[in-house]
């Protein structure tokens, strides 16, 4: 069973499932966050192909301002929500803000409704962590369409899947990273990734058979930092999902 390595949720156990999902091991996670270090603190984070949500939850535990989790697998989405509750980043069971509970939308007058459910945009839990059930590329396009840029994107697609290169290309083309931001992609060491316009490969770390590739936006591709949190945006419409 996975455990959170450090921070406010240190030692908390995360649920995982067997099968095609491959959670990031503790050694790789430790190396990754040692490199990211203070960059995570108060940063906005997106966890792509999130699986169990271990990377994003580790980021929240270490002080990230918020994290948006994106995965297209229904089992993964349920597991992420359960793990957020376990680590107290997603509300407590039976209380407002629990992931998966319905919340009101519309104007907010500062009063809690009689049913105790806050509007989505006023719910602190929903601003800290949110889960989208959609694929990685549609999720990135949704951020770009709303002019939302983030500090760190953590991506852990299945090894050998061409979506890894598509993630790099989409992040570079759509300017989803804030100035000085980072895309970190976990992949098999035998599967090299190519750079693309808008991104530079600045570092690669090999850990056994796993490689971590770090990409940063080139200066010409940087955009003004957004004040839009990814966790307050709606997910892509189901009609646009592949």
* Residue fraction in strands: 15-25%
The pLDDT mean sits at 81
Tally the helices: 6
Number of strands: 9
**Spatial sequence of strands, sheet with the most strands:** 5-4-3-6-7-9-8
Residue ranges: pLDDT <50 for 5 or more in a row? 92-126
- Write the CATH fold name: Rossmann fold
Topology (SSEs and partners):
Blueprint: E1 2-3, E2 13-14, H1 26-36, E3 44-48, H2 54-61, E4 66-71, H3 74-86, H4 124-128, E5 129-133, H5 136-145, E6 150-155, H6 163-174, E7 177-188, E8 199-207, E9 210-217
Parallel strand pairs: 3-4, 3-6, 4-5, 6-7
Antiparallel strand pairs: 1-2, 7-9, 8-9
Describe this entry's structure for a reader.
- Helices cover 24% and strands 23% of the residues.
- It has 6 helices and 9 strands.
- The strands form 2 sheets. The protein has a 7-stranded mixed β-sheet with strand order 5-4-3-6-7-9-8.
- Helix 5 (136-145) packs parallel to helix 6.
- The relative contact order is 0.16.
State the main characteristics.
242 residues; alpha/beta; Rossmann fold; two-stranded antiparallel ribbon; 6 helices; 24% helix
Summarize, please.
The chain is α/β, with parallel strands linked by helices and 242 residues long. 24% of the residues lie in helices and 23% in strands. It has a single domain, classed as Rossmann fold (3-Layer(aba) Sandwich).
């Amino acid at each position: 069973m996975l455990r959170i390595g450090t921070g406010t949720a240190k030692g908390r156990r995360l649920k995982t499932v067997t099968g095609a999902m491959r959670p990031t091991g503790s050694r790789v996670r430790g190396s990754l966050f040692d490199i990211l270090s203070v960059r995570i603190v108060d940063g906005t984070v997106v966890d792509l192909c999130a699986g169990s949500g271990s990377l994003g939850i580790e980021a929240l535990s270490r002080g990230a301002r918020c994290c948006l989790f994106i995965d297209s697998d229904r089992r993964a989405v349920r597991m992420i929500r359960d793990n957020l509750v376990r680590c107290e980043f997603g509300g407590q069971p039976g209380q407002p803000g629990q992931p998966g509970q319905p919340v009101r939308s519309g104007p907010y007058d500062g009063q809690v409704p009689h049913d105790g459910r806050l509007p989505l945009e006023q719910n602190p839990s929903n601003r800290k962590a949110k889960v989208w059930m959609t694929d990685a590329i549609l999720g990135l396009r949704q951020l770009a369409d709303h002019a939302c840029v983030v500090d760190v994107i953590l991506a852990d697609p299945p090894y050998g899947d061409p979506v890894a290169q598509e993630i790099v290309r989409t992040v570079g083309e759509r300017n989803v990273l804030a100035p000085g931001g980072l895309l970190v992609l976990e992949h098999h060491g035998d599967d090299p990734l190519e750079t693309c316009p808008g991104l530079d490969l600045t570092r690669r770390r090999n850990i056994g058979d796993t490689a971590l590739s770090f990409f940063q936006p080139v200066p010409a591709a940087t955009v003004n930092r957004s004040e839009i949190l990814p966790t307050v945006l709606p997910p892509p419409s189901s009609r646009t999902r592949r």
